[in-house]
Every structure is written in C-alpha cells, then in structure tokens.
Amino acid sequence: MNPQELIQAFEKKFGAGGEPRVFFSPGRVNLIGEHTDYNGGNVFPAALSFGTYAVARKRSDGNLKFASLNLPQEVERGVNDLKNIPEDGWTNYPKGMIQILLEAGLPIGGAEFLFWGNIPNGAGLSSSASIEVATAIAMRGLYGGEASNQELALLAQRAENQFVGVNCGIMDQFAVAMGKKDHAILLDCASLRFQWVPFQLKDYELVIANTNKKRGLADSKYNERRSQCEEALRRVQTHRELASWGAMTEAEFEAAIPWIEDPILIRRARHAVMENQRTLQAVDALKSGNLTTFGELMNASHRSLRDDYEVTGKELDALVEAAWAQPGVIGSRMTGAGFGGCTVSLVKRDQVESFMENVTNLYREKTGLTPDFYLAAIADGAKELSV
Ligand code: GLA
Q: Sign of the CA dihedral 180, 185, 187, 193?
C-alpha cells in the first residue's frame, strides 16, 4: 500500500480531519554476528525494504487508539494507563514503546494509530522492533522533541526488555532505526560505535528463506542462552578482568576455558567469542571485495550456532544444508535469534531460480514444510514518508 492509500484507510477507520502523517520503520536481516549483541560484541545487520507503516494523528483527550490492517484486534487506552496485559495482544508493543517514552520524559500525548506491515510475522526479521520504532518516530513526529533515531532505538530496546519481557540486545532496534540503503551496519554493541559499510553484491543476490516453523518457546530459550553466557563470564571474572565476551581474543579464551569448567557454558562462550571475531573478519573481507571469504564465514557462523550455541534446530539446519548443496551459493546461515525463523544466503544472480526450486524440494523432503523466499533489498532506516 502506498502512503495515500494508508491515509484513506486511516480516515475510514478513525474519520477525516486533522493531519494524519505516515511513518515507516523497516525489518532487518542480520548478515553475521549472531547472539553477540548482548555479549558486548559486533553485529552486522541491514535494514530491509519491507517493514511497518504507521499512520498517526494527534488526539486532544489523552487517549491512544490502536488499529491494524493486518490483525483484527483494536485497543483504546489512556496514556497514563499502559500496562502489559495479554488480552491487548499485539498492541502491547506500541503501548510499551509509548510507556517507555513517557518514563524517559519525552513529549507524548493522545493519538490514533493505524498500522500496516509487510514483514512476515514470527520470521525473525524483527517485526517487533519495527513496530516499536515506528511508534517512537510517529510520537516524535506528532509531539516533537529532540530524540535522535539512535536514542529512540535504545528506548525501544528498553520497551522490549522491561515492558514486553524479552531480554534482547540492541541489534534489532538499532538496525531498523539506523539503516541506510545499500549499506549494512557494523555495530560494536559495547560502545555503540558503528559504521555503514557498502553492501553491493554485483553478481550475487541476498536471498532470505523462511523455514515457516513456528518459533515456540523461543523467548525462554533466548533468555536461557543469555544467562548461560553471563554465568560463564562471571566464572572468568573471578580470575581476571573481562568486560564482556566481545573484549576477548581467541587465544585469551583458550586460556580461560579451565575457569569456566562446565562443558555447556564453555561452548556458549566459545560461540560468543568466535562469532565476534568472525564478524570483524567478514567485514574486512567485504571491504576488500572478497565475497567468497565473507560467505565461508557465514557458513562457519551457522555451524557454531548449531554446534556450540545450539539455537538452530532441524528446520534451520535442513534449509541451510539444502542451500549449501546448490551451485552458485557462496554462503548460507540462520539469521536472528534462531529456533525457527529465516536463513540468509548469498546466491549467484542467474542461479536464484534453480536455487529456490531445488531448496524447496530438498527442504520439503526433510521436514514436510514449504519455505518462502524473499529477495531482499537493503533500504533506509525509520523515517517519515511524504504523502
Ligand atoms: C534477536 C534479538 C537480538 C539478537 C538476536 C541474535 O533478534 O532481538 O538482540 O540477540 O536475536 O543475534
């Protein structure tokens, strides 16, 4: 839908008048650097061309109304009455965002919101970060204030942590707020220093494939991985100073293994350390035009997520193995939190058709599921759209 059509849908829902405005926040794909953000390491995500649109208009009565063109549920709440309650369903995301903006002392007030999104739900492409950041930039658009996109990304992460209850890192919210067309973002999650790195693939295409496996229990397993890394870090910190796993080299990690003791914790921490190193190596390879090395590091990332971090599962492994078996593929890995969701592959442009066909057949044979494919365009971060 284009912005004019969205405004029409908004006026049909909430009535004409005032000045509804249209905001957009993308989804994201992570190219490499998985489960490193909350471990103080580097990530390398990019914003996508699909995302969440929010049409918004001020209300003078201090109430918030939320509706969506994707889901039937509608909710109305006062700005001073925002709690996470299960019966409010998806609206807990925008409610949480607005509650955190309020707590941070940013200007907010009553408003009507109509959302429309084209990110596949539950696919691990950050539909939740996208709706949070869309809400935040819409409130800034309506009520003013000086908050930068980067500041709003940090508040969106807080909304997810404190209001929604998922202990996520900063990657998703940062990527959707700070994306740039044809660039991926190398972000050091310990310092929040970042750089945009050109991501143009010449003869290759970035292909996202959805396992279409529901991500049941993903949040609790995610939180468990995070606490395992924290426990391993505490054990090492009783022997030496260490701010986070992102601050460690491979050699230092080898020396620290005996202090961690527990074999599971050792594997979790090894992933965090090595994945961070791989991310830096992959960005160097990309900068020097060496896509083959970039792809090999993607493959190594998947193996580490499968064997050491144990967040892949049968479906993601089957989809990645099917991709690895195709000609013209230089790298393939799971992307996002894992336990289902999507993979990302670099595929020779003239072989994309046969890639999709062959991977569909192999994946179906192994799992009984049919994958979906998206040819990803890397686009700008969250912004207001002109109508
Ligand atoms: C989810 C979280 C991110 C990050 C990834 C794994 O997408 O929201 O913060 O931890 O998983 O890399």
A: negative
219 or 379, which is more confident: 379
Encode 377-386: b = buried (16+ Cβ within 10 Å), e = exposed: ebbbbbebee
In what helix (H) or strand (E) does residue 186 lie, and over which residues does it extend?
Answer: strand 183-188
Tokens of residue 350, six digits:
């003239």
- CB 64 less than 6 A from any atom of ligand 1: no
**Tokens at residue 127, please?**
């539909």
Pick the CATH number of 204-375 from 3.30.70.890, 3.40.30.10, 3.40.630.30, 3.40.250.10: 3.30.70.890
For ligand 1, whether the C-beta of 117 sits within 6 Å is no
Fold of 3-199+379-385: Ribosomal Protein S5; domain 2 (3.30.230)
| Cα of 31 from ligand 1 centre, angstroms | 12
171 lines ligand 1 (CB under 6 A): yes
How do 329-335 and 183-188 pair as beta strands? unpaired
DSSP annotation of 289 reads: T
Provide CB contacts within 8 A for 116, sequence distance 6+. 1, 6, 9, 52, 53, 68, 69, 70
Over residues 79-128, the pLDDT tens digits come to 999 999 999 999 999 999 999 999 999 999 999 999 999 998 788 999 99
Per the CB < 8 A criterion, the answer to whether 309 and 271 are in contact is yes
